[in-house]
Amino acid sequence: TLSASSPLRKRDLVVVSNREPYVHSRTDDGIAVERSAGGLTTALDPVLRRLGGTWVAWGSGDADAAVADDGTVRVPPEEPAYDLERVFLAESTVEDYYYGYSNSTLWPLCHGDLGRIRSEPSHWPAYERANERFADAVVEGVEGGDPDPIVWIQDYHFALLSDRLRSRSGLPDAATIAQFWHVPWPSPDAVRVSPHARELLEGLLGNDLLGFHLPAYRRNFLETVDRLLPGASVDREAGIVRSEGTGSSEPERTRVYARPIGIDVSSARRAESTEEPSSVFEDYELDPGRSLLLGVERLDYAKGIRERLRAFEHLLETEPRWRESVTHLMVAGPTREQVPEYRRYQRRVREQVAAINARFGTDDWTPVRHVEAAVDWERLLALYRAADALVVSSRRDGLNLVAMEYVAANAGGTGTLVLSELAGASEILEGAIEINPYDVAGTAAAIDRALSLEIDEADEAQERLESLSESVRRHDVGEWVRSFDREVRALATDAAARGDA
Ligand code: G6P
């Protein structure tokens, strides 16, 4: 709940993200609408449902499906509450802006995987073009409406958007532009690698408010600006950047804050009554007499899947008692397949799984089961509850909501979390067994310990889970939205104190 004086309640809200919360497609039976699965939809769909507003996103479904006369779509379909404004992009733009600059440069750059950056001359211009297109769509959405709307941009697909918005005449002067960066912000040395480092920073400084999950990312950002933009002045303590403004625009002031997103704790718990954990043993041909080690992620190199498989193999090599007594179930579906690095990674993961199974598998035991098909929420919750341990082995991860979902789904029950210390979530979750995924023997030992805890040290397992549950509850997604609300309010207080308002 937001307080009565909340800016979010009083002012029009426009959310911008690359992924749409609902995808419309034309089928033989009419129009099918599918709700997106990601953490962003979970976080912001309830807010817009309650407050109304507009969500601007890349139209990934059928352009002609469900369009009103003014080109917008009301969602959610069962109880229309807000406008979805879809931005349709040419295939070549998607190729170069989304698969290209966003996911072949910015993603590896922000995750510190510089060797995986692949850059083509067509990528950057398409990224600029897409940001321009979104700026037009946002202005269309706010024109003639509320004189002081709040525009809340999400993520790394839109580093230039706030700056492009500033240059549009249709944007009301009193609009607040804010952005949340959901992936890590790396060190200044990593950012320097990009030939567009300055443009990215200047682009982001068009925001009044800029959020990151962790104080460390915020610190990195402020330091990056300090080192790479000589014209900007940075108050690291207060998190305020004053920049020159670009082109004809006025000098700008950006407030930078840190607050991690979370999950909707109640929806992970509610499922207790739905699908039985036991049903998943049958579905995935698992033997309930064996321990179950679960992994859930997109097939992304940042998730450290290959490192984890190596560690699991090492466990079977060095601790033969686990042979035939543990199954590692990996729910990891393909993602971003147009990017060659991702296709290569998928292939390698499949080969590695096959090799481990060939080496250790027996007639009635498959050590690693890899599920590539999408798993719906209820089924996922049943899996979380059935698993003795969940392992998150990210080489780098902005936060990691799967770790939180696992904890919430098991609260009051059993289950141990093995969590990479390189995932942002490790900064806020207390009670996990931490690993460095590059440490093969250490990760194997942590998995061994997690599975053993579940078998014969119930007290410690329970203590860990209780402390984890407590930290997950403290970071419920509602708290993330309220913190944004408070930050927007602080902007106004700051401005009043300076005499600008
Ligand atoms: C991860 C990141 C998000 C990002 C999303 C995009 O979940 O943590 O920050 O927005 O990937 O995924 P997509 O499938 O849309 O490329």
Features:
about 500 residues, alpha/beta, 10-stranded mixed sheet, 18 strands, binds 6-O-phosphono-alpha-D-glucopyranose, Trehalose-6-phosphate synthase
What does this structure look like?
The chain has 501 residues and is an alpha/beta fold. The chain contains 17 helices and 18 strands. The chain has helices at 7-10, 39-51, 91-110, 123-142, 161-166, 188-192, 197-204, 215-228, 265-270, 277-283, 305-318, 340-360, 377-386, 401-410, 440-456, 458-474, 477-498; strands at 13-17, 22-27, 30-35, 54-58, 73-75, 82-87, 150-154, 176-181, 209-212, 233-235, 240-243, 252-258, 291-298, 326-333, 368-371, 389-392, 416-420, 433-435. Helix 5 (161-166) links the parallel strand 7 (150-154) and strand 8. Helix 10 (277-283) crosses helix 13 (377-386), helix 11 runs parallel beside helix 12 and helix 13 (377-386) packs across helix 14. 6-O-phosphono-alpha-D-glucopyranose is lined by residues 18-19, 38, 155, 182-183, 335-336, 398.
Write a concise synopsis of the structure shown:
This protein is an alpha/beta fold. It has helices at residues 7-10, 39-51, 91-110, 123-142, 161-166, 188-192, 197-204, 215-228, 265-270, 277-283, 305-318, 340-360, 377-386, 401-410, 440-456, 458-474, 477-498; strands spanning 13-17, 22-27, 30-35, 54-58, 73-75, 82-87, 150-154, 176-181, 209-212, 233-235, 240-243, 252-258, 291-298, 326-333, 368-371, 389-392, 416-420, 433-435. The longest helix is centred in the C-terminal third of the chain and has 22 residues, at 477-498.
Taken as a percent bin, the fraction of beta residues is: 15-25%
Envelope shape = globular
Strand order of the largest sheet: 5-6-4-1-7-8-9-12-11-10
Q: What is the number of helices? A: 17
- Class inferred from helices and paired strands: alpha/beta
The set of bound ligands, ions and cofactors reads: 6-O-phosphono-alpha-D-glucopyranose
Distance between the termini: 27 Å
Round the mean pLDDT to the nearest integer and report it.
94
DSSP strand count: 18
The Cα radius of gyration reads 23 Å
- Main beta sheet: 10 strands, mixed
Q: Percent helix among the residues? A: 40-55%
Sequence stretches where pLDDT stays below 50 over 5 or more residues: none
